[in-house]
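for the record, two folds in this file. i put them one after another cuz i was lazy. first one right below, seq on top, C-alpha cells after. the second one comes after a little note so u can tell where it starts
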Amino acid sequence: EDCLDPIYLPDGRVLFSSVTAKGRRPEAALFACRPGGSELQRLTFHTGLDLEASLLKDGRVLFTNWRWDERSMRWIGRLLTINSDGTGVAAIRRSEQGADGRETPDGRIAFVSLEGAATDGGGALAALAMRRIEDRTPLAGSVPERWRSPFPMPDGDILAARTVDQPGATYGLWRWTASGVLPVYDDPSWH
C-alpha cells in the first residue's frame, strides 16, 4: 500500500489516501490518524480512487473520486467533500467532471475540468462558487492547452502546471491572473 496526499486536519490528525493494487484496478480510500499512526480511521468507502485531498476553510475535506469508465476506457474524476469524521459525503456538482480542487481566498473552488480532457488528467482551469454551484467560471484552458495541479495564491491568482496540445509538449509552471497567464518556469529542454 502507498500513502499519498497528506494534509493536517484542524483537530491535529493527518488525513491521507491509501492506495492498494488489489484486483483489476487500483483502489484508494481516505484515512485519518494521529501523528505516529494511532487512531487510524477509514473515512471513504468508494470504488475507485479517492485522491487529491485539500482542506476547506469550513473544515470539510475536498477530494477527487476517480472511477474507471468501461465505455470510454479512462478514469473519470469528480469533486466530493466529506466531513473530517467521515460523515456527510457530497458531490460539489453532480454533472461536473473535475479533479485537483483547491479553495481560493474568495471561497471559490479552483479545479481542473475534465470534460473532454486528455488522458493525462489535464483539462481546462475553472472555478466554482461553493454557495451557488451553478456559477461555474472557465478561467483558462481553450482547446489547445491543458492545466493540472491548481494552487490558489493569497492574492487570488492561481499557480498551476500548463501545457499546450502539441507533440512533445511538456507541462511548465504558470500563474493565472485575472488579466492573463504569466510564465513562472517553463523550460522544455530541462525535461
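(here's the note) second protein begins now
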Amino acid sequence: QAYDDLRVRLLLGRVLVKRNKFVEAEKILRELLPQWKLHPLEGWEAGATETFLGLALSGLRRFAEAETHLLASYEQARVAIRINNRTNALNGLVELYTAWDKPDKAAENRRRLEAHKHADAGDSLNQNGEFAKAVDEYIKATHLAPNLDGVLNRLAWLQATSPISTIRNGAAAVVAARPACELTQWTNATY
C-alpha cells in the first residue's frame, strides 16, 4: 500500500504541474523524492519525480534549481535506458532553457532528443534483425550527439558481431567503442 500511495502522489504532482499549479506540485514532489530513494522497488518513479519537480521549479522561474533536477532525471534515465523518463527530462530541459533564455542549451537538448529518437529506432531495428538500418540510425544518433556512450557501444557491438559480413567491421567497431570507453573513463566493463 505504501508503494501505491507514493505512485498516487507522483501522479498528483504530475497533474498539478500540467495544470500550472507549480507551488502545490513542488511541495508534493519535494516530499516524495527522498521517499522513492528509500523504497526497495524504486525504479522509474524517482526519475519521473525529479523531472516533474524540475518542471514545477521551471514554472516558478527558479531555473538553476530546476536544471539540477532535470539533469539528474535525464542522466538516470539515459543510463537505465528509460525512454519515457528520458524524453520527459529532455523536453523539460528544452522548455527550461527556452524560458531561461539560453537558446544554445535548448538547441543542444533538442539535438540530444533527436539523437535518442534515432538510437531508439536503431534498437528496434537491431532487435528485428534489420542490422544495416540499425547501423544507419545509430550513426545518425552519434552525429547529432557524439557523447552518448550507450549508443556508441551498441553501434560498436553491432559492427563487431553482426552476422552480415557487409556490416561486420572490426576497425569501425573499435572507432565507435573507443569514445564510449573514454566517455565512461574506461569503467564500464560491458564496453
